[in-house]
Specification:
disordered C terminus, transport, 252 residues, MotA_ExbB_proton_chnl, mainly alpha
């Protein structure tokens, strides 16, 4: 019992050299950084869930200005709000500053609005991917950092054992077991980072797909004055809304 209590984290830290301590501190910094990024993304996902229904509230508004106000109230500082604001700013700029006798006047209005939408999506994508490279790097390198600490610790443990001349099992198992703790630390840092990276990456893809669909709807609205009706919302011949749709469109 006394021998078992002689080994542990405190003993490893007390007997370790500068390299082992540097590896331990590096793993600690990587763990703190990864959990900081994970918590930031978790808070962002919680805020994003509160924005559900903001897009439908936007399209159900009587006019575009009222829709912008609804979107800003329900989803402030969101990529969807930024996209709509950017599209409105581009349309307003086009309306006030376009001159037909200048080079800018020869540009198509849809092209200018499309550029504005792409710029907003690019900025939103950069914001969503912020910190993802660091999180992926931590998840991929932490096991090797811990393994390096283990190899270094085992090497020095064996050197000390050979110098002392006591190569019995109880003298070898303790130092080697302490060195293996560094590998466990590396896995402890890497596993949450990898799992969080996969989950965050999937959430980003879903949000970007919704943002891209919203951009297409905005472009259609500025081009035709109406939103593209989703295929699932188009009434079929057997649906109750089909006669009203045919009457509204003048179909036979």
């Amino acid at each position: 019992m006394e021998t078992a209590q002689a080994f542990g984290l405190a003993h490893l830290w007390a007997q370790s050299d500068l390299m082992i301590r540097a590896v331990a501190l590096l793993l600690l910094a990587m763990s703190v950084t990864s959990w900081y990024l994970i918590l930031l993304r978790l808070l962002r996902q919680i805020r994003a869930r509160r924005h559900e229904g903001a897009i439908e509230a936007f399209w159900s508004a009587p006019d575009f200005a009222q829709g912008l106000r609804r979107l800003s109230e329900r989803a402030p500082d969101s990529p969807f709000d930024a996209l709509a604001q950017q599209a409105a700013a581009a349309a307003d700029h086009l309306r006030r500053h376009t001159r037909h006798d200048s080079l800018g006047g020869t540009l198509d209005a849809d092209e200018m609005i499309t550029r504005a939408l792409r710029k907003s999506i690019a900025l939103s994508t950069a914001g969503l991917e912020s910190g993802m490279t660091l999180l992926a790097s931590i998840g991929s390198t932490a096991p090797f950092v811990g393994l390096f600490g283990t190899v270094w610790g085992i090497y020095h443990a064996l050197v000390n054992i050979s110098v002392s001349g006591a190569a019995t099992l109880d003298k070898v198992a303790g130092p080697v077991g302490e060195a293996l703790i560094m590998t466990a630390f590396g896995l402890f840092v890497a596993i949450p980072a990898v799992l969080a990276y996969n989950a965050i990456n999937r959430a980003n893809r879903l949000e970007l797909s919704e943002l891209d669909a919203f951009a297409h709807d905005l472009l259609a609205w500025f081009s035709t004055g109406s939103r593209i009706v989703p295929l699932a919302d188009i009434p079929t011949a057997s649906s109750p809304a089909a006669p009203a749709m045919r009457a509204a469109t003048g179909a036979a």
